[in-house]
Specification:
about 20% strand, Creatine Amidinohydrolase, single chain, 3 domains, metal-binding, Creatinase_N, globular, Creatine Amidinohydrolase, Chain A, domain 1, six-stranded mixed β-sheet, aminopeptidase, 19 helices
Length: about 600
């Protein structure tokens, strides 16, 4: 199994590990320390050796942080983890806070004293992430001090080793563009930005630019490393030597120089002393490297990672791969949903058993490389935890009268998938049907949207929330995130969110469409498909010079008929559901067993 279910932390972590960190801070002459949920690559999902926040607090979510002072400490997360944070972190040692109530920088400003020295690891903070703390320090009069090595690493006994997975070439027929051609056009973008070279620190950018994949991060085929791309298209790749094979050397060719990763800062210093200007993304690059360039006399040019946007706009080969991967994956999901409809009412299926069975259906495709994240297999009240992770300590049986939410995805060499479905175990309540239908209305509203060039996901977010808002309801997560091509399941710069977004949606971008509703202690609902932004096309009767983009659906698996309250849907919404189900049956039935094909035919009949 790709997913394991052993608990990775417990509430004792805070009591055991916080004193160890404070001992190190005292020895270093520090009055406090900042602990983000980051690794040295500012990844969302971290290798085990970089789970410093979890080691310190016990919190295992993907978004959080902590601030430790000599006499008090606080742990933070967002609305997705409002239930999980207090369940995992001992409030005898940490004050537990949501970032929409108080930010870590505000808490530090309120609790640190003038003249104190607060440490931070400059490899775990981008310039953008550090800025709020710098403002707090200026207002309160304390000092921020970069500290290497990280004192948590020194206090952490039996810390896991850093990953050293081999790096493999990604086939050209799936990448859709030769790596040399990519380097040429990215080099031109670097020159246009007014820089001589760009430092790339995002593993996804390395994977895309060089057409390579790795295995250093769970559930994402990422190679950890750094790269320098020069304005003439020449490049330098910095990775641990253990990851390099003869096949990789041959694939990279003579125009890519290979170096040990430990040499990055030395190489930057050499280039800086030669007068080179270095493009860095202030939101993605550790401040350690900005300091390395500036201290060597070089010029830092601040701008977006030049790979980020080209990577997000998928070419036709990547889109075709995504379409094929989603048909295969949708069939596996549909086989699972039929199995669930038979087995769950017996009240013998557990959350872990369901996640294992779904993974086995994906494995039966014969081409599954990994899951794209740990399956959220959440029954009853666990469904109200938007990012619940089932373990052997929390596993529960699916019961009649409850909802079961399963959010999962697969990594295939031709595409990355992410889908959420909700099943009613037994007879759902009228409220469950109403809330599911409101979420469905929001999902349909976004799926049917047409919008002009230049529109960001911020402008579309309300389409998915409006039916819930009209009923006095909402959800505390984004509506859509970008998705990579056999890369990370969460990819920028695009997203669909109520928060301000600079990046416009562009044709070829893959996004999720996933409105939800969560009732604490009872159930959770989320309906998620992946969509791709389509090319602009005229609308009959519209302005001739104002073509509109839209979304092409990628995900094909049936919705839960028992939860749809047809009377709450408009005629257009009912037609959308019927058309979607018709497409589901037409596109995936050939991949199904005969029994599942018959079952799906019934599920896809018109409302």
């Amino acid at each position: 199994m790709f997913q394991t279910f052993d608990p990775v932390s417990d509430r004792s972590f805070a009591g055991k590990h916080l004193p160890l960190l404070r001992e190190r801070l005292k020895a270093l002459g520090l009055d406090g320390f900042l602990v983000p949920h980051e690794d040295e690559y500012l990844n969302e999902y971290l290798p085990d050796h970089a789970e410093r926040l979890m080691w310190l607090t016990g919190f295992s979510g993907s978004a959080g942080s902590a601030v430790v002072l000599s006499g008090k400490a606080a742990a933070f997360s967002d609305g997705r983890y409002s239930i999980q944070l207090p369940a995992q972190v001992d409030d005898q040692h940490f004050e537990l806070l949501m970032t929409h109530d108080v930010t870590p920088s505000d808490w530090l400003r309120q609790n640190a004293e003038e003249g104190q020295v607060i440490g931070y690891d400059p490899m775990l903070f981008s310039e953008a992430a550090l800025k709020p703390f710098q403002k707090a320090a200026a207002k309160k009069g304390f000092t921020l001090k970069p500290v290497r090595p990280n004192p948590i690493d020194e206090a952490w006994q039996d810390r896991p080793d850093e990953p050293t997975a081999k790096i493999n070439p990604h086939p050209l027929e799936l990448a859709g563009e030769d790596a040399a051609d990519k380097r040429t056009r990215i080099g031109e973008d670097v020159a246009e930005a007014g820089a001589d070279l760009a430092l790339l620190t995002s593993p996804s950018s390395l994977a895309w630019l060089f057409n390579i994949r790795g295995g250093d991060v769970h559930a994402a085929p990422l190679p950890l490393g750094r790269a320098i791309i020069h304005r003439d298209g020449q490049a330098e790749l910095f990775v641990r030597p253990e990851k390099v094979t003869d096949e990789l050397r041959s694939h990279l060719g003579n125009e890519v120089a290979l170096h040990a990763e430990a040499q990055v800062d030395t190489r930057l210093a050499v280039l800086a002393k030669e007068g080179k200007s270095v493009l860095v993304d202030p939101g993605l690059t550790p401040v350690f490297y900005l300091s390395a360039v500036e201290e060597a006399g070089g010029k830092v040019v601040r701008g977006a990672d030049p790979v980020s946007l080209p990577r997000a706009i998928k070419n036709e080969a990547e889109l075709q791969g995504a379409r094929e991967a989603h048909l295969r994956d949708g069939a596996a999901i549909t086989e699972f949903l039929r199995w669930l409809s038979i087995e769950a009412p017996k009240e013998t299926v557990t959350e872990i058993a369901a996640a294992q069975r779904l993974e086995s259906f994906r494995r039966e495709t014969g081409v599954l490389k990994d899951i794209s994240f740990d399956t959220i297999s959440a029954s009853g009240p666990h469904g109200a935890m938007a990012h619940y992770r089932v373990t052997s300590a929390t596993d529960r049986t699916l019961k009649k009268g409850e909802l079961f939410l399963i959010d999962s995805g697969g990594q295939y060499q031709d595409g990355t998938t992410d889908i959420t479905r909700v099943a009613a175990i037994g007879e759902p309540t009228p409220e469950m049907r109403e809330r599911y239908t409101l979420v469905l209305k929001g999902h349909i509203g976004l799926a049917r949207a047409r919008f002009p060039k230049g529109t960001s996901g911020h402008a579309l977010d309300a389409l998915a929330r409006l039916p819930l808002w009209m009923a006095g309801l909402d959800y505390d997560h984004g509506t859509g995130h970008g998705v990579g091509s056999f890369l990370s399941v969460h990819e920028g710069p695009q997203k669909i969110s109520k928060h301000a977004i600079d990046q416009a949606l562009e044709p070829g971008m893959i996004c999720s469409n996933e409105p939800g509703y969560y009732k604490e202690g009872e159930y959770g609902i989320r309906i998620e498909n992946l969509v791709v932004v389509t090319e602009a096309a005229p609308i009959e009767g519209g302005d001739a010079d104002r073509s509109m983009m839209g979304f092409e659906n990628l995900t094909f698996a049936p919705l839960e008929r028992e939860l749809i309250e047809s009377e709450l849907l408009t005629r257009d919404e009912r037609e959308w559901v019927d058309d979607y189900h018709s497409q589901v049956f037409d596109r995936i039935s050939e991949y199904l067993t005969e029994d599942t094909r018959d079952w799906l035919s019934s599920r896809c009949r018109p409302l």
